[in-house]
Amino acid sequence: MRGSIIIRSNLIIDKARKLITELEIISDEKLISRIPFTSGEILKLIAFHRSINKSIVNVLEIGTGVGYSTAWLMLGIIEANSIPNIVSIDWNRERIEIARKYFKKYGFETFVDFRVGDARYEILKVNIPLDIVFIDSIKEEYLYYCEKLRDKLVDGGILISHNIFGFKAQLKDFISEIFNKDRWITTIIESDKEGLSISVKIKSKRNAKS
């Protein structure tokens, strides 16, 4: 088990928000793309809702950047008084090192396993039941991630993807998949100009009979 029992407190929440603010400044200074603040709030809300009455919440993030979206997901879990267990993958070592540095600075390093590598292969090493998957990476690979991770998502688990509006051509097959009503319940929201898709995994009919 990663981390330790959290007693939800204003101090811990304040530290997480300070981390978010600092990572926002760093990503903007270094011209590293990140989700907008409004989408961060949506990630927090989803993570909070998924964490209710759960002791540990397993999250996989593909596309770390400097850890800005990671921090929003973590905050939502902490606000629900649950323990974050997050795996975050990025191919860029420099960005991962920035994320590690600042999560350690604020005392949250035990809640996130930052990994450098090709996510197409790194996700195959993730062998925990996932509550949330967040994808903000190479658009042509979204469908691959969706197909490989669906069985690792628990029933009712949530797949969130960014940049849905801006890359419709590249994401055509992925969008078709997440609107398969036998497999997902999906909505797309304009939390920012690029859009977020939010997909809830439906229990398969085969499992439902068992």
Keywords:
210 residues, alpha/beta, seven-stranded mixed sheet, 23% strand
Can you summarize this structure?
The chain is α/β, with parallel strands linked by helices.
Order of helices and strands: HHEHEHEHEHEHEEH
CATH superfamily: Vaccinia Virus protein VP39
Sheet with the most strands: spatial strand order: 3-2-1-4-5-7-6
CA radius of gyration is 16 Å
With helices defined by DSSP (H or I, 4 residues minimum), what is the helix count? 8
Kindly name the structural category: alpha/beta
Biggest sheet architecture? 7 strands, mixed
Strand content: 15-25%
Low-confidence stretches: 1-5
Shape: globular
How many domains in all? Answer: 1
Structure description:
The chain has helices spanning 10-29, 37-51, 68-79, 93-105, 119-122, 142-149, 172-178, 205-209; strands spanning 56-62, 83-90, 112-116, 130-135, 153-162, 184-189, 196-201. It has 210 residues and is of the alpha/beta class. The protein has a single domain (10-209), classed as Vaccinia Virus protein VP39 (Rossmann fold), CATH 3.40.50.150. A 7-stranded mixed beta sheet has the order 3-2-1-4-5-7-6, sandwiched between helices. Helix 6 (142-149) runs parallel beside helix 7. 42% of the residues are buried.
